[in-house]
């Protein structure tokens, strides 16, 4: 059974391992080399500093990380401060079990509660039907495709842009 919690430093080894698998074996990430444990720790610390959600899905029996997701700064300019970008990766042994959907639903809820306006997904590779379908199933809309913008494993990769409005009523420009 899946339990979702905020990620802690105790989860970094497993998070790093999951990310490494996807960097080496998939096209969802544009990294060519996996992040070290130290770099992943820095990413976690930065998200904590900015109070952005970073969640893990744990197996309730073993307490092993089955997947993780987080919302990070979309762009550094102040005008984008109400928009976040989501990242989600599932352990290869636990894909297609509903873990991604449960994690992303929890992330969306956290982002809404924090008052963010938009959540953007920059999905690596237009052939990544699982991630595209997951985001679509939760209300994300297709915002466009950037063709052949990354070269990885001798293949040109697209970025599929998807977007979800988090607040049912728009925020006024004044605040």
CATH superfamily: Gcn5-related N-acetyltransferase (GNAT)
Quick one: CATH class?
Alpha Beta
Strand order in the largest sheet: 1-2-3-4-5-7-6
Number of strands: 7
Q: Helix and strand string, N-terminal first? A: EHHEEEHEHEE
CATH architecture: 3-Layer(aba) Sandwich
The poorly predicted ranges are 169-175
Q: What is the 3D shape?
A: globular
- Kindly identify the CATH topology: Aminopeptidase
Percent helix, as a range, is 25-40%
Strand content: 25-35%
Q: What's the number of helices?
A: 4
Q: Report how far apart the termini are.
A: 41 Å
Q: Give the helix/strand class.
A: alpha+beta
Mean pLDDT: 94
Number of domains: 1
Major sheet size, sense and barrel closure = 7 strands, mixed
Computed over alpha carbons, the radius of gyration is: 16 Å
In short, what is this structure?
This protein has 175 residues and is of the alpha+beta class. The protein has helices spanning 12-25, 37-49, 99-113, 129-137; strands at 2-6, 54-59, 65-73, 83-90, 118-124, 141-152, 155-165.
List the helices and strands and how they pair.
Blueprint: E1 2-6, H1 12-25, H2 37-49, E2 54-59, E3 65-73, E4 83-90, H3 99-113, E5 118-124, H4 129-137, E6 141-152, E7 155-165
Helix pairs in contact: 1-2
What does this protein look like?
It is a single chain. The chain contains four helices and seven strands; from the N terminus they run βααβββαβαββ. It is of the alpha+beta class and 175 residues long. A seven-stranded mixed β-sheet has the order 1-2-3-4-5-7-6. Strand 2 and strand 3 form a beta hairpin. It is globular and about 40 Å long. It starts with a strand and ends in a 10-residue tail after the last strand.
């Amino acid at each position: 059974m899946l339990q979702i919690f905020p990620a802690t430093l105790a989860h970094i080894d497993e998070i790093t391992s999951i990310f490494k698998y996807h960097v080496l074996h998939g096209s969802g990430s544009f990294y060519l080399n996996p992040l070290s444990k130290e770099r992943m720790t820095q990413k976690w610390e930065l998200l904590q500093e900015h109070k952005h959600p970073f969640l893990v899905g744990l197996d309730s029996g073993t307490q092993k990380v089955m997947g993780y997701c987080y919302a990070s700064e979309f762009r550094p300019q102040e005008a984008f401060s109400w928009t976040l970008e989501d990242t989600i990766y599932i352990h290869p042994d636990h894909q297609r079990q509903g873990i991604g959907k449960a994690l992303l639903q929890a992330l969306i809820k956290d982002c809404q509660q924090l008052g963010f306006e938009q959540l953007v997904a920059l999905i690596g590779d237009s052939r990544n039907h699982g991630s595209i379908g997951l985001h679509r199933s939760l209300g994300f809309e297709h915002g466009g495709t950037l063709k052949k913008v990354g070269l990885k494993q001798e293949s040109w990769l697209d970025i599929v842009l998807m977007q979800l409005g988090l607040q049912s009523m728009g925020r006024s420009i004044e605040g």
